[in-house]
Amino acid sequence: MSEQTICYFCGFSSDKLFKVVTKLSKTLDTSTFAYRVACPKCIEEKDLQENIVGDA
Amino acid sequence: MSKKVLIPIEYTFITQRTIEYALSLAQQDDYEIYLFRVANPKVVGRSVRRDTLSNALERAMDSMDRLLMRAIVEVSKEGELDLAQVGAIHKRFSVGDLVTEILKMAGNISSDMILMGVPSREDPDYEKGQYNFTGSAIGDLVDKAPCSVYVRKTFDETFILL
């Protein structure tokens, strides 16, 4: 697990962060994915609940 | 040279499990994954709304991404999945006869294997009828495919080489 303590999306620092899977490429025919660390607020805003892999 | 795995997509749980298997395969060795959705020509354009081909394409791409995302999340929960190792996953979409389109795509990309997830009778997806991979379609595919065809059924962890 990553030891990052800052949300990738908003830069918010918190002790309660989650590891999520996000899509990287925006092209129609190819998909690449990466793990990111996100705070609960961004998870809710970006509708990432289903993408949570575990605690960061 | 990387091996190419073609996965015909249906929006069923067993297809998601098949993608999960392909992801773990892609981690261990050099594999390229091709997700392929074939739409029925009778369904595309039939709707009263402006259900054009491009709409169908975008919907299929979105659905494949969601399926893929769920598979990645599941594999990640089981253990550490290195996404950098897996790399790009291709998506393809076509309209036409299921078997013909799969065969054409397998030839076009020089596929090394076709992985298919087929719902068993006990599977809720089977009862809902949300699948097109019938016995005759698979039989036809196995007969004419230019590569190996592996079929996996729900509740059975093994892939059967046909």
Describe the SSE topology.
The complex is a heterodimer of chains A (56) and B (162).
Chain A: E1 18-23, E2 30-31, E3 33-38, H1 40-45, E4 52-55
Antiparallel strand pairs in A: 1-3, 1-4
Chain B: E1 3-8, H1 13-28, E2 31-39, H2 53-78, H3 83-86, E3 89-95, H4 98-108, E4 113-118, H5 124-128, H6 135-144, E5 148-153, E6 159-161
Parallel strand pairs in B: 1-2, 1-4, 2-3, 4-5
Antiparallel strand pairs in B: 5-6
Helix pairs in contact in B: 1-2, 4-6
Q: What does this protein structure show overall?
A:
The complex is a heterodimer of chains A (56) and B (162). Chain A is mainly beta and 56 residues long. Chain A is elongated, with a radius of gyration of 11 Å. In chain A, strands 3-1-4 form a 3-stranded antiparallel β-sheet. Chain A contains 1 helix and 4 strands; from the N terminus they run E-E-E-H-E. Chain A starts with 17 loop residues before the first strand and ends with a strand. Chain B has 162 residues and is α/β, with parallel strands linked by helices. Helix content of chain B is 44%, strand content 23%. Chain B has a 6-stranded mixed β-sheet with strand order 3-2-1-4-5-6, with helices on both faces. In chain B, helix 1 crosses helix 2 (53-78). The longest helix of chain B has 26 residues, at 53-78. Chain B starts with a strand and ends with a strand. The mean pLDDT of chain B is 85. Chains A and B meet through strand 2, strand 3 and strand 4 of A and helix 2, helix 3 and strand 3 of B. Strand 2 of chain A pairs antiparallel with strand 3 (89-95) of chain B, so a sheet runs across the interface.
Compact overview of the structure:
The complex is a heterodimer of chains A (56) and B (162). Chain A is mainly beta and 56 residues long.
